[in-house]
Task: inverse folding
């Protein structure tokens, strides 16, 4: 007879203190200071840089939403899976008349239209493809996916999008940037904490804290590298 792991699927686990590996990963992301990256200094006075940023975020937003769905499918426990589903619900919003008008991808598309960016201009740059590739690989495991989504994306967005918002205020104030950026800044703090809680529980149950921390570092470093290459591209007038 197969010993069915009932508890793994059905029993809830109390939320205790955040696991040290998870806290170290959060501290690593915060310590990077992504909001001080030179790209944002450039973008504060460069419509070209902001257009490039929006086109590449449009490339990323769909695969990131799908990565969250893949991640949820890897979590067997109903209670922890429901925590991931809160994040997914925040990204997608409510459906009204067959549309998701409050979803993050659609709010970003509204920003695109307000900037006069044509659909044909939305083409992936090599640095964007590389960044998505890192996310895709990390979501191959539940603990790596929690690190990539929770630390390398949701956690970083808090500073990253705050910096982008200042750039739009200075350089393109009449665009529809506020609703998209504010939705992410407001929700992603909670999203990051939820995914950190799930990771802490799984690590306490035996998942590798080293794998989690290393995946978080790779994901954060990949985002920094993305901005390094995008800034270089702007400065070299290669857009």
Result:
């Amino acid at each position: 007879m197969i010993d069915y792991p009932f508890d793994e699927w059905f029993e809830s686990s109390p939320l205790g203190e955040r696991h040290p590996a998870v806290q170290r990963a959060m501290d690593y992301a915060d310590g990077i200071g992504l909001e001080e990256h030179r790209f944002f200094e450039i973008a504060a006075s460069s419509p070209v840089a902001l257009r490039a940023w929006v086109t590449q975020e449009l490339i990323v937003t769909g695969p990131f939403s799908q990565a969250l769905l893949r991640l949820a499918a890897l979590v067997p426990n109903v209670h922890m899976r429901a925590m991931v589903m809160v994040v997914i619900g925040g990204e997608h919003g409510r459906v009204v008349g067959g549309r998701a008008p409050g979803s993050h991808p659609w709010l970003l598309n509204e920003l695109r239209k307000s900037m006069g960016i044509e659909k044909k201009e939305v083409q992936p740059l090599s640095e964007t493809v590389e960044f998505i590739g890192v996310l895709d690989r990390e979501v191959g495991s539940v603990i790596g996916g929690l690190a990539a989504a929770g630390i390398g994306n949701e956690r970083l967005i808090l500073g990253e999008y705050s910096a982008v918002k200042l750039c739009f205020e200075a350089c393109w104030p009449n665009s529809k940037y506020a609703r998209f950026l504010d939705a992410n800044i407001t929700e992603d703090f909670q999203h990051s904490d939820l995914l950190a809680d799930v990771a802490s529980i799984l690590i306490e149950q035996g998942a590798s804290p080293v794998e989690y921390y290393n995946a978080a570092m790779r994901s954060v470093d990949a985002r920094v590298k993305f901005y390094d290459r995008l800034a270089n591209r702007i400065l070299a007038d290669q857009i």
